[in-house]
Amino acid sequence: MRFRVRPRRGTALLAVTALAAGLLLVSPQPASAANLVANPGFETDGTDGMPSCWEKSGWGDNDFTFATVSDAHSGTKAMKVTLTRRVDGDRKALITESTACAPVVTAGRQYDLGLHYRTTTPDAAITLFRHDTTAGWQYWTDLKTLDMAAAWTPATVRTPVVPTGTDRITWGVSVYGTGSATTDDYTMEQVSEPIPPATCTGTADECANGRWTVLPTQNPVRSMHSVVLNNGKVLLIAGSGNSEENFDAGTFTSAVYDPVTGSYEVVPTPKDMFCAGHVQLADGRVLVMSGNKAFPVVGGHGYEGYRESYVFDPVTETYSRTNDLNDGHWYPSATELGNGDVISFGGLREDSSGSVTAERWSNAQQRWLPLGQVNQTWSFWGLYPSMILMQDGRLFYSGSHVFGNGTPGTGSAIYDYDANTTTAVPGLRNKDERDQSASVLLPPAQDQKVLTLGGGNIDSNPAAGRLTDVIDLKAASPAYTAGPPIPQGTVDLGNGKVAETGAQGKMYVSAVLLPDGKVLETGGALHNRADPVFETSIFDPATSAFDPVAADPEARGYHSSAFLLPDGRVMATGDNPGNGTWNHDVSVYTPPYLLKGTRPSITSVIDSEWVYGDTQRITVDRPVVKAELIRPAAVTHSSDPNQRFVDLPLSVDGNNVDLNVTSNPNLAPPGWYMLFAVDANGVPSVARWVHLQGPSALAADTASAHVHSFADSLPGAVRGPERKRTSQKVSTTVSGCDRHYGTVGVCVPTAFPEGVKPTTVSRCAWLKRNDYGRLGVNGKDDPLGLDPDRDGVACGAKDLIRR
């Protein structure tokens, strides 16, 4: 497979030569007066056979040469880097990492980089490093893939905005395939475009904090799955909607919402897709796997997951059945890989035990592969385990999951499918209280940082927490580090809203990537299906800080979703508290960036069909500082592991902007994406839809993926596959609900929140505050002591007198 990544056996780093400072340059130097590159034409000799202010760099198992050659674009010298054999890694000539040579940069500014080149390989790219004043030198990003060129060819590209704490950069051309790249006449100039003044178009509070609007039309279905389709509409999947009445009647529904008209179209749904898995396929259709075969029965089984799988077509708005999964999976994960395949773990089987069967959907064959063709760990990954695709094809299990404790050990791991090994990753705090936390690959995906925030535990039912943890998967030995706590809001404990105190935070968190490169977190509750928290904030990856903004006025706890619309707003739906009710109100958030005046506009997209390593031209109506692809949402239960924001480095010529598409499909798996352009004030355009195609559609001269040596020195315990087995035993109370009381859709907690005494009076008072109403007792058992008079009704008047 073209983009398959080899399991890494080790990395050999090339020693970097330190060069003397203060060397003088000699003419000719074909550079402008503003050029920040010292010795841009390699005319001044240095040491170790390299020109002054240039050094050898690279890593991996390959044979290579560095040579100063006379076949120059101008002057008498050029630099040639050649690979004659490659297993992995790259080689590159870089500006020397020294104060004398590395260009000084200013945080918040951008720089135009240019050079002339000749190549005999499609596998060459302009690569950028930055010097952090605290952490030192580190890889920043690949900016542009160079097309093959026999004659001297110019290449230009603009850096992203320089991050805070960066004082110098270095850059050059990486060669990561057999062949050579010869380069000359480097230029680097600071972009001088002024930032236009922002004009507030709302109230002062709205311009600072945004605003929420509750839409006049309610969601007609009890949807707990939200998928933004490639036509801009939203698929809202309910199935039975966690309704026993709907389930018994065989009434299974979905709806398609049109944000432009505000209308809903209810769609017949062939199966109870309540708590299924779903993912967008490379062609824009939606793969929906498993769902609810049966609700729990007191004294019998728990939830059951079926084997059926379906595909939803946005064009016809209909479902069609695929082949079956190898096992049942109620609450499975679903992660698209770089070749368009989908891998899935976890969930509950047809007998309500935990599934230890990994499933793989073949993009080429358009079917689920037989069990014998899928690598198996025989591990139970839990329910909705958050499995995020890394840049080298491995999967990062963030520790976010649903229902109860995390996995044994550190609670987080890196899974290598090809090697079929799992390596523990340290640092996740309170790993057993990350039930229905959210994890998100922070913008941009090239930075390979993951934020995990909030969570609780429905088994022990403590107050949900404020913890956030961040991990840098570019590190050789990545580990979670503490992030800033989630800001506190108000919580409704049944007697009106009060301020959160102490360590109170929230579970059922929604995290949404925004086109300005930040993350909106919203919604949540303090306890299992109870006590909604009203708090929304925006996390800035550049500063690692939260900014509290306007809070959604609607309760958004269990079975809620929030997701980005193509116009840059955020839509929030659902809430299914323990008393079995459903919130059909829909909220839409207008972020502050939409209240700063006129938006930039993408006036044309030359081609909406994109391939990896390509350059695509758009036109804009005024200057923009960045553009990105954002994968449309497919979210449920705080989980959307495929959500990602992929930076598109710019080459700017007035209103014509060339976008440089990553060569690595693991950074941007194939499919439809929302393309945004963003101005210097962080104001985004309305998105245009583009289709990033999979390997079968790649042009013959398109570069292979430039995969970097990240997370290659993992010290954690490594596990191979467990002994082959059928399943993992799982309690019938896995959902945290005691089914001895009320109907199937009602969740009386197996563990009441702290502060509720283990007495009939105290528990019944809590149930009353949370509007549970009349609760019948199912069967003869009364494990929570809610029916002392044994009349079959919990919390009746006589029950409260006697206890």
UniProtKB/TrEMBL annotation:
Galactose oxidase-like Early set domain: which residues? 599-691
Any keyword Thylakoid? Answer: no
What are the transmembrane regions? none
Query: What Pfam families does the database record attribute to this sequence?
Result: Glyoxal_oxid_N, GO-like_E_set
Q: Which keywords belong to this entry?
A: Signal
What is the superkingdom listed in this entry's lineage?
A: Bacteria
Range of residues in the leader sequence? 1-33
Task: List, alphabetically, the InterPro entries matched.
Answer: Gal_Oxase/kelch_b-propeller, Gal_Oxidase_central_sf, Glyoxal_oxidase_N, GO-like_E_set, Ig-like_fold, Ig_E-set
Residues annotated as domain Glyoxal oxidase N-terminal = 254-579
Q: Has the keyword Signal been applied to this entry? A: yes
Q: Which GO terms describe its biological process?
A: carbohydrate metabolic process
Q: Which PANTHER family match?
A: LOW QUALITY PROTEIN: ALDEHYDE OXIDASE GLOX-LIKE, SECRETED PROTEIN-RELATED
The molecule here is called DUF1929 domain-containing protein
- State the species of origin: Streptomyces triticiradicis
